[in-house]
Task: inverse folding
């Protein structure tokens, strides 16, 4: 039986992020980090893809920018990089395994096989520890940025892929 893979937030990953005021960071800094993490993710995918193809699977490591506002859950609409300071913006790397036709492995009852992935940058608007809509007139808006060194980002993504390979009995 395939189970949904989720590490949760452990001590190491929670230390990998830093809350910042939006006035303390620029769009260009965010775009630069997103581009560098995308490059690392592509490198990991290219390095490990053949292992999955040899067993009739496809490794998919994708980058996305979405609006994670609770009002859109579960369908998060895409955003452009220019919206990176907008409340509920989230850029992330997702990791999944599909069959060669692109279908996720697993089913609704037992769960689908996908990795933890990695958030790069997110913006949240909150009031008294609750996420609120951007139209809510009070509350604070802060960003949360990935602060792991690049070799650690690569290692984190590789470990995510290794776990998926292990679930499918794919030697790496």
Result:
């Amino acid at each position: 039986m395939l189970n949904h893979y989720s590490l949760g937030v452990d001590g190491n990953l929670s230390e990998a992020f830093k809350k910042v005021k939006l006035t303390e960071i620029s769009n260009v800094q965010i775009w630069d980090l997103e581009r560098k993490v995308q490059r690392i993710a592509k490198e990991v995918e290219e390095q490990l893809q053949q292992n999955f193809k040899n067993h009739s699977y496809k490794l998919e490591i994708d980058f996305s920018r979405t609006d994670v506002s609770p009002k859109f859950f579960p369908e998060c609409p895409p955003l452009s990089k220019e919206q990176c300071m907008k409340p509920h913006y989230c850029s992330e790397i997702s990791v999944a395994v599909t069959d060669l036709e692109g279908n996720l492995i697993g089913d609704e009852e037992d769960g689908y096989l996908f990795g933890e992935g990695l958030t790069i940058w997110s913006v949240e608007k909150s009031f008294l520890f609750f996420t609120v809509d951007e139209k809510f007139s009070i509350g604070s808006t802060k960003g949360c940025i990935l602060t792991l060194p690049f070799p650690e980002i690569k290692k984190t993504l590789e470990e995510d892929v290794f776990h998926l390979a292990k679930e499918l009995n794919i030697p790496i």
Notes: The CA atoms of residues 60 and 96 lie 5 Å apart. Confidence is low (pLDDT under 50) at residues 1-12. Residues 14-167 form one domain.
